[in-house]
Write a structure and sequence with these properties.
Elements: H1 2-18, H2 33-44, E1 56-66, E2 82-92, E3 108-114, E4 120-126, H3 136-145, H4 157-166, H5 171-179, E5 191-192, E6 197-200, E7 206-215, H6 232-243, E8 246-254, E9 274-287, E10 307-309, H7 313-336, H8 338-341
Antiparallel strand pairs: 1-2, 1-9, 2-3, 3-4, 5-7, 6-7, 6-10, 7-8, 8-9
Helix pairs in contact: 1-4, 1-5, 2-7
């Protein structure tokens, strides 16, 4: 039981680190982006030149083929009929760029849509439909509870148990992690925006929306034999793409009046309107050291006209924390050089 709790706790903590927030909300000692990034550097170690979370990943590219349905709720050009080039990144949570793919059950997908009018839509998604916590106090307490015990190098199960007991809002995510077997591929997993956004159409009507990308491939749980390969996710995707493109459907879920938009721990009820806005097509993958995603900061608040942040406090906080991480790894590269940073792993932030 302690081992299972520690595994779930580590997964929750790693996911949270990827959504680390900031703002001047805590007093008297202000919770800032550098403080948060410093904490998960302390938790996961510093690997110069790499992202502070989701350090291990690979770049992908392709396009989004819009069917025009999304234009009913957003005037963003990406939802007009036609194709939009996309670059992206698959990753697993965690600060170690050499971590085995089987070390955590969560997969992540980040995308950058380059619209013809020069605007961009950037999004970072996870394979979990909800988040663990929704306030800065909760997040910082969680990150501290997940700090490695010096004696074991792993989170202390007693501290994690105490944190979860005092924060019942973490239960939906913990239940999902406990019941959802890791996927066998990056290509057969669904990915979720988790946060809500505001979509405005050409008539000026605004709706709260969350989205997901749902694979055309059927979900399959991982074969334990496959996990003997520490890079099985990347290798499986490389092999799959040699056989042809991989596709997901972009599903826009529209909130009903009264649905919570500022709390990512709460899933919206089933039965909400869903719009299939088109098909995401991934055509190729490349190692991140030389890939198109290498220097992209997938800030989820970089949005085109027709999409805007909601009142979810995670969004501005994610933007700030991502900026700190990006600036640190860029300074490290400038100081030490790309060859030094990547000499051991070949990966890149």
């Amino acid at each position: 039981m302690p081992c299972r709790l520690a595994a779930i706790g580590a997964a929750v903590a790693a996911l949270a680190a990827g959504f680390a927030w900031t703002a001047g909300w805590l007093t008297p000692k202000r919770l800032t982006a550098p403080r948060i990034v410093n904490q998960f550097e302390a938790n996961g170690g510093v690997h110069p030149g790499f992202r502070r979370n989701h350090a291990k990943g690979l770049c992908v590219s392709g396009y989004f083929d819009s069917n025009g349905n999304g234009a009913a709720i957003s005037k963003a050009e990406v939802f007009a009929v036609g194709r939009t080039p996309v670059v992206g990144r698959f990753a697993i949570p965690g600060s170690n760029p050499s971590a085995p793919d089987a070390s955590i059950p969560i997969r992540s997908m980040a995308l950058l849509f380059s619209l013809a009018n020069g605007q961009q839509w950037r999004t970072g998604m996870n394979s979990t439909p909800v988040f663990a916590v929704h306030t800065p106090e909760q997040f910082y307490a969680q990150l501290q509870a997940a700090a490695p015990d010096p004696a074991t190098g792993k989170p202390n199960p007693a501290k994690l148990k105490a944190f979860f007991a005092s924060h019942p809002e973490t239960k939906p995510l913990r239940d999902w992690l406990a019941s959802h077997q890791p996927s066998s591929s990056l290509a057969n997993e669904a990915y979720y925006s988790i946060n809500a956004f505001r979509f405005t159409n050409a008539a000026g009507d605004t709706h709260a929306v969350r989205w997901s990308v749902v694979p055309e491939l059927p979900y399959a749980s991982v074969d334990p034999q496959a996990t003997r390969d520490p890079d099985f996710l990347q290798n499986e995707l490389d092999h799959r793409l040699q056989q042809g493109d991989v596709r997901w459907h972009l599903i826009l879920t529209v909130a009903a009046p009264g649905d919570v938009t500022n709390d990512a721990t709460i899933a919206w009820p089933s039965g909400r309107q869903q719009i299939d806005a088109g098909t995401l097509v991934i055509q190729r993958a490349t190692p991140q050291a030389e890939g198109v995603c290498r220097d992209v900061n997938f800030d989820p608040t970089i949005l085109p006209d027709g999409i805007a942040p909601s009142d979810d406090p995670l969004l501005a906080a994610r933007s700030a924390a991502y900026s700190v991480s990006y600036n640190r790894r860029e300074r490290e590269e400038a100081a030490h050089g790309v060859a030094t940073v990547h000499s051991s792993t070949g990966n890149h932030p």
